[in-house]
Design a protein that fits this description.
The chain has about 325 residues and is an alpha+beta fold. The chain has two domains: about 220 residues, no CATH class; about 90 residues, no CATH class. It contains eleven helices and seven strands. Strands 1-3-4-2 form a four-stranded mixed sheet, with helices on one face. Strands 5-6-7 form a three-stranded antiparallel sheet. Helix 4 crosses helix 8, helix 6 runs antiparallel to helix 7 and helix 6 runs parallel beside helix 8. The longest helix has 27 residues. It is globular, with a radius of gyration of 25 Å. The N and C termini lie far apart (about 85 Å).
Length: about 325
């Protein structure tokens, strides 16, 4: 399996894959054996077979599911084909074939508890995001520097871009912190290589932001098709098209209530609109936004949706008054 790392394959490798079947299969390659080993040393042969035996494939029941990413795979809605329907020994992106190949989601189901099984689903999507990031490197997309051999600074830079992008999007999607902790462990293995070429570090975050934006743009298309809220405020059709349009809501905020639920509060045209319940997903998305403008836009969008009946009632007298003036 090691040979797949060289050439034009960008393969997740190293400590990042210490837990799952696909990672074990990729990290270890069976050593060369004498052909009659099973006859000469049957016990040793038995132990070797046990060591490299692939675990039984389970189903995906109880694993975390992300409908938008599932739809993207099923409809082939990404920039290049994504193949995730057969058992594979590793996840990789091939620039020459322009294809992302993933192990089946069920191969990530190796947990011994319901919590571990659930997180296995997140690991699958995190791996998907990592390889999708690699596929944004091509000249017609984000045009990052391609090439480099496994272990050199150019390769390390591309791995850091892919893993930081996957970690950033995973965090935005509310994945378990243990998933992003795994990313941190994987990143450590590459940072040492980049110390030899510190110039690369300056451009890494710019590349991460561009890749994240490109991926979330495509994920948001799937979310909108499913009737879900997009991650990026710019992709929400309910937001005003004119960026200079005055936001009528004042004192808007998403708060946690005494019973542990979440709600939005705001005032409009000097009138307090009271508390309106919002979902935990909506609250989590808001609290995970770091850019002030994104938070403001997300609040405005959520307020528009939450207070739509109240706003309709408040606008009705204005419309009637306007109509009466026209009649005069």
């Amino acid at each position: 399996m090691e040979s797949r790392i060289h050439g034009d394959m960008y393969v997740r490798f190293g400590g990042r894959y210490g837990e799952t079947y696909c990672r074990k299969a990729k990290r270890h390659s069976v050593p060369s054996l004498q052909t009659n080993l099973s006859e000469v040393q049957p016990e040793r042969m038995k132990k070797l077979k046990e060591k490299f035996k692939l675990p039984e494939l389970r189903d995906t029941e109880g694993m975390y599911a992300h409908p938008a990413l599932d739809r993207m795979i099923q409809s082939q809605g990404w920039l290049c084909p994504i193949k995730a329907d057969k058992q594979e020994g590793s996840a990789y992106y091939s620039p020459s074939k322009d294809i992302v190949v993933l192990p089946m989601k069920a191969q990530f189901n190796i947990g011994g508890t319901p919590e571990e099984t659930y997180r296995g689903g997140m690991e699958f999507y995190s791996t998907l995001l990592h390889e999708m990031t690699h596929s944004t490197m091509t000249p017609e997309r984000l045009n990052r520097e391609m090439g480099g051999r496994f272990g050199d600074p150019k390769y390390a830079k591309e791995e850091l871009v892919a893993e930081l992008t996957a970690a950033m999007i995973s965090h935005s999607m509310g994945f378990d912190s243990k998933i992003t902790d795994n990313s941190a462990a994987y990143l450590d293995s590459w940072i040492g290589v980049l110390k030899k070429e510190p110039k690369f570090i300056v451009s890494i975050m710019a590349d991460v932001n561009k890749a994240s934006d490109m991926i979330l743009d495509h994920v948001d298309k799937q979310r909108l098709a499913l009737g879900e809220q997009p991650y990026l405020a710019k992709n929400d059709p309910f937001l005003p098209l004119d960026p200079n349009e005055e936001v009528p809501f004042k004192n808007a905020a998403i708060v946690k209530t005494r019973n542990g639920d979440y709600a939005i509060r705001a005032s409009y045209d000097g009138v307090e609109l009271g508390l309106k319940a919002v979902s935990k997903d909506t609250a989590r998305t808001f609290f995970q936004l770091t850019d002030y403008k994104d938070k403001e836009a997300f609040l405005n969008m959520t307020a528009r949706k939450s207070y739509e009946p109240e706003l309709a009632m408040m606008r009705r007298p204005q419309i009637q008054h306007s109509g009466a003036r026209m009649g005069m």
